[in-house]
Design a protein that fits this description.
The complex is a heterodimer of chains A (58) and B (376). Chain A is built from 1 helix and 3 strands; from the N terminus they run βββα. With 58 residues, chain A is of the alpha+beta class. Chain A has a 3-stranded antiparallel β-sheet, covered by helices on one side. In chain A, a hairpin with a 2-residue loop joins β2 and β3. Chain A is globular. Helices cover 2% and strands 39% of the residues of chain B. The chains are: A alpha+beta (58), B mainly beta (376). Chains A and B meet through β2, β3 and α1 of A and β17 of B.
C-alpha cells in the first residue's frame, strides 16, 4: 500500500484520537484505530519501518 | 414342505464351508424368497434397495449433496459490490479486491480481470472470473482468498477444487498454510482450453495458521512461470471443504452470499452504480445538531456486523465532494465529515457544515455515501 498524508482525527467533543485520515493507493480513507483492520496494521508497520509518520490531530 | 438344496459347481475346485458362530442360542436364518446372490463385502447395492433409516455416513463420502460445507465465500462469483467488472479491468502488481472476497494481482506481466456472467460450466449456468495476461514474460497472474477462520483447520484434511478453463499448463490452485509455510498444489490444467475440474487435498499441520487459496497461472509454490500474451485462466465453482473428496459445489442464494461478503465489505451504493461523488442518489439520514449548533452526528447501522471496525471512504451528494452534505436553510450544504467512532455495527460521522443556519437540538437531513472495508 502507498500511504500518504496520514493524520490523527479526534473523536467529537473528546480529547482522544479516534481514527486516522490518510490517502491509501490514491484514495482518501478514514482508518479506525483497530489492530485487526488491515489498513491500520499497514500504517503501524510503515511507521515502525520509518517509511511514514502520522501527523497529530488539530 | 419347501426344501433346501445345496448345489456344487461343476467347474470349480474350491470348498465352501458354512460355519457356526460361537453361540449357545438357537438361530434361524431365513433365505430371501427371490432369485439372486447374497450380499458380501464386494457386492454392489443400487439405490432401490436402500430404504428405512440409513446408517451415519461421512459427508466426505457423499456426492451430489449440498450443505454447509464450502469455506470459500462468493465461490461462484455472484457478488460484486465494489463495481461492475464485466469489462476487462487492468490488474496491478499490488493485490486489489475486485470481486468480493478475492484479491488479485499480476507479477512481471500485465493482465486484466473480467467478471463473466451466465457462463455454462459443467452443465450449469454460473458467473466466472477470467484473468487474462496482456503481455508475455516469466511471471504470474493470481487471485487469492484468505479464510478468516484458522483453528478449524488445525490437523484437518481439506480438499480444494474449482472448474478451470485455461490455455496454459501451469494453471492451478494452491492452498498455502501460512503458519506452517506449506503450499499444496492441485493437479494442473491440460491447457486444452476447456473447463476441467482441478482439485487437491492436504492434511493441515498443527501450526497451519491462516489458510489462503491461490488460483491462477503460477508455479506450484505460487512463483512465476512462462506466460504468453493472451494466456487466460477462467474459473468457477471454487470450493474448500473438509475431507479428501472434492464434492459437488455448494450453491447458496445471492442473499446468503451477499450477507457473507458484507462481513468484510459493504457499501451504501446500489449494486452496479459507480462509487463516486454525486454519482447516485444519496443515503439520507437524520441527525440532531449539538448544542453549539455548529455540528451534528449521523449514524446508521451496517446491514451485518462487520469483521472489525472498517476503514471508510466517504462520498458527497448534493453538495461538496468526499464529505456528506446537510440540509439547512432550505439548501444542501457541504460539510467537513470525519469518522466519529465507527465500529463493527454502526457508521458514525461527525458533520460540520459551513456557515450558520442550524439550531441547537434541531434534527436535520444529511446525505452522502460510504464504502466500509473490513477485509482481511
Amino acid at each position: 500500500m502507498v500511504i500518504t498524508n496520514a493524520k490523527y482525527i479526534k473523536l467529537a467533543l473528546e480529547d482522544t484520537n479516534g481514527s486516522i485520515e490518510a490517502t491509501i493507493d490514491g484514495v482518501a480513507i478514514s482508518v479506525p484505530l483497530a489492530t485487526d483492520n488491515r489498513h491500520y496494521a499497514e500504517i503501524l508497520k510503515q511507521v515502525a519501518d520509518g517509511d511514514i509518520t502520522i501527523a497529530e490531530a488539530d | 414342505m419347501a426344501k433346501v438344496k445345496i448345489q456344487g459347481h461343476a467347474s470349480g475346485t474350491g470348498v465352501l464351508t458354512i460355519t457356526a458362530p460361537n453361540t449357545s442360542t438357537d438361530r434361524t436364518v431365513t433365505l430371501p424368497d427371490s432369485t439372486g446372490t447374497l450380499l458380501d463385502t464386494t457386492s454392489g447395492l443400487d439405490a432401490t434397495k436402500l430404504s428405512g433409516n440409513l446408517p451415519a455416513i461421512s459427508g466426505a463420502s457423499l456426492t451430489g449433496i449440498a450443505g454447509r460445507k464450502n469455506w470459500i465465500i462468493n465461490g461462484d462469483f455472484q457478488v460484486s459490490q465494489r463495481a461492475a467488472y464485466t469489462s476487462a479491468t487492468s490488474l496491478t502488481s499490488t493485490s486489489v479486491y475486485h470481486l468480493d472476497r478475492f484479491k488479485t494481482k499480476i507479477n512481471t506481466i500485465s493482465g486484466t480481470l473480467t467478471h463473466k456472467l451466465n457462463q455454462v460450466v459443467n452443465g450449469k449456468t454460473t458467473n466466472t472470473m477470467l484473468l487474462t495476461a496482456t503481455s508475455a514474460a516469466t511471471g504470474r497472474v493470481e487471485t487469492v482468498q484468505q479464510i478468516e477462520a484458522t483453528a478449524p483447520f488445525i490437523s484437518q484434511t481439506i480438499t480444494f477444487s474449482a472448474w478451470v478453463k485455461s490455455d496454459n499448463t501451469s494453471a492451478r490452485l494452491i492452498v498455502h498454510q501460512n503458519g506452517a509455510n506449506v503450499q499444496t498444489s492441485s493437479n494442473t490444467h491440460t491447457g486444452g482450453g476447456a473447463f476441467e475440474l482441478l482439485k487437491g487435498t492436504v492434511t493441515c499441520a498443527s501450526n497451519s495458521g491462516e489458510i489462503y487459496l491461490y488460483s491462477g497461472i503460477q508455479a506450484a509454490g505460487t512463483g512465476n512461470v512462462s506466460v504468453a500474451n493472451n494466456d487466460y485462466f477462467e474459473m468457477a465453482f471454487v470450493q474448500l471443504e473438509y475431507g479428501s473428496v472434492a464434492t459437488d459445489f455448494e450453491h447458496r442464494s445471492y442473499g446468503e452470499e451477499l450477507a457473507l461478503c458484507q462481513r468484510y465489505y459493504t457499501t451504501s451504493f446500489n449494486t452496479g452504480v459507480t462509487h463516486a461523488d454525486n454519482a447516485h442518489e444519496g443515503v439520507v439520514s437524520a441527525a440532531m445538531a449539538y448544542s453549539a449548533a455548529t455540528a451534528t452526528v449521523s449514524s446508521m447501522a451496517f446491514p451485518v456486523k462487520m469483521r472489525t471496525s472498517p476503514s471508510l471512504t466517504i462520498y458527497g451528494r448534493n453538495a461538496g465532494t468526499g464529505n456528506y452534505a446537510i440540509y439547512k436553510s432550505q439548501t444542501w450544504t457541504a460539510t467537513t465529515t470525519a469518522n466519529n467512532g465507527t465500529n463493527e455495527s454502526f457508521i458514525s460521522l461527525y458533520l460540520q457544515p459551513s456557515g450558520a443556519g442550524m439550531t441547537a437540538h434541531y434534527v436535520y437531513q444529511t446525505s452522502g455515501h460510504y464504502d466500509a472495508d473490513a477485509e482481511l
